[in-house]
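hey so i finally got around to running the thing on that chain from the lab meeting. sorry it took forever, my laptop kept dying and i had to restart like 3 times. anyway pasting the input first so we r on the same page abt which one it is
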Amino acid sequence: MVTQVQIIEWLQVFASVINHHKEELTELDAAIGDADHGINMDRGFKKVSSILPSIEGKDISSIFKTVSMTLISSVGGASGPLYGTWFLRASSVTAGKQELTTNDLLNLLQAGLNGVIERGKAQLGDKTMVDVLSPAVTTFEKAVNESKGSVEALRLAVAAAEQGLKDTIPMLAKKGRASYLGDRSIGHQDPGGTSAYFMLRSLLEVVEGSRRSKYRK
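ok and heres what got predicted. didnt touch it at all, straight out
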């Protein structure tokens, strides 16, 4: 089970990871985008981090919905709507829950991916965060079907996400600002895919206990 406390902890850890890597994300975005992904994500997740104490006691769905609204209102560019949609869809499949089973996690990850695809109109191979999220979900689902637990399923999913991220480097961008560059987008790692990988890796680190935050009781 993944508890409500761990969800809060995950959001705090993810915010810290984004802050630590904001310059890297901005440099990646400078190569093929507007050079603001790290700045925008850091701004949004600092806001998320600041509101976590006020939502500690709420159910997981309410937490995700609050995060969604915060990101949509505070993150510029495409990242705000895409991450906002991811968390909003996650909230829609976790109503009233204080803890999540492995199947709940699968539903959450799948719903988030579907939301990003619908909002961004991107598909696998377009050099976007979908290229990280999609293999992670596929791998997690396979692990669930093989009766693996949440931690092992997440480890496999994060490994697939990492490979998906590396696979964005030789891709030609077909969506977003990077698509305007044509062949010049080839050879660069996707910044949105990078932050999506950080999101999934942060979740794994909290669930397996290798990363802790001030919210761990």
